[in-house]
């Protein structure tokens, strides 16, 4: 263990924030740290929109399903997969050639780039004493979010991120045991399912304590429910309209 790993192991989602601002210098440092994440072929196929306008945050909170902390945090970052710059580069330098910006591979590259950069930024924010929480809810009404943020074709909002000084004490949610996710030389199905069984016991106890006995649902049962209910089925059509996933 070292200081960096200890910081990572203390991560928790924060959903209540003090009004203390995030300065422009701090925000710039957080995003610059995000930019130092690895990027496939250095394409850097992502952008981030910092929303501080109160009216706009309130609208995003509504579009994200009424998540009040989007409105309450001092700055809300929307991380976007962004092929706009790359499509422009192809049109300017090789206008005679067909562009494959709409391929599944480029969709994956842009989405992964955004994820890597945002996690770097999250760690940077936490190192400065801020708390964060990711907001996947902005994909629920993704078309309206894209319109509000004036996103051009080739850009889509992957998720949001609240940043601010935490105004709550929260426990650290336990993760799957390492043996459930770490395999050596080949995938080991029995090992990962054994890890899930152990994790079900852990999460049952965690939920029971966190909810004062009101809930005690094991993780695998929660995941079963999640995978058997349709969610955000409109996203694919939106992505295709925006120039993603056409081949």
From TrEMBL:
It comes from the Bacteria. It is an enzyme of class 1 (oxidoreductase). It holds the Pfam family Nitroreductase. This is Oxygen-insensitive NADPH nitroreductase. Belongs to the flavin oxidoreductase frp family. Residues 9-164 form the Nitroreductase domain. It comes from Paenibacillus cucumis (ex Kampfer et al. 2016). Its EC number is 1.5.1.38. The keyword Transferase does not apply. GO terms for molecular function: FMN reductase (NADPH) activity. Signal peptide: none annotated. CDD domains: NfsA-like.
């Amino acid at each position: 263990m070292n200081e960096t790993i200890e910081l990572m192991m203390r991560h928790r989602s924060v959903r209540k924030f003090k009004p203390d601002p995030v300065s422009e210098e701090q925000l710039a440092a957080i995003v610059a740290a995000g930019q130092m994440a690895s990027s496939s072929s250095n394409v850097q196929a992502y952008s981030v929109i910092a929303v501080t306008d109160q009216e706009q945050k309130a609208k995003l909170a509504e579009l994200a399903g009424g998540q009040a902390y989007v409105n309450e945090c001092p700055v809300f970052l929307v991380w976007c997969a962004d092929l706009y710059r790359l499509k422009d580069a192809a049109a300017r330098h090789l206008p005679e050639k067909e562009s494959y910006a709409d391929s599944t591979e480029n969709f994956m590259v842009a989405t992964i780039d955004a994820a890597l950069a945002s996690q770097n930024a999250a760690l940077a924010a936490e190192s400065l004493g801020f708390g964060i929480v990711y907001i996947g809810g902005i994909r629920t009404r993704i078309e309206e979010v894209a319109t509000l943020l004036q996103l051009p074709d080739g850009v889509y909002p992957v998720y949001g991120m609240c940043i601010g000084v935490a105004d709550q004490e929260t426990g650290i949610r336990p993760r799957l045991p390492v043996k459930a996710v770490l395999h050596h030389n080949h995938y080991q199905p029995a090992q990962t399912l054994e890890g899930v069984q152990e994790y079900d016991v852990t999460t049952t106890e965690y939920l029971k304590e966190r909810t004062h006995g009101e809930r005690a649902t094991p993780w695998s049962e929660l995941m079963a429910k999640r995978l058997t209910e349709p969610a955000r089925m409109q996203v694919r059509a939106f992505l295709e309209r925006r120039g993603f996933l056409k081949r």
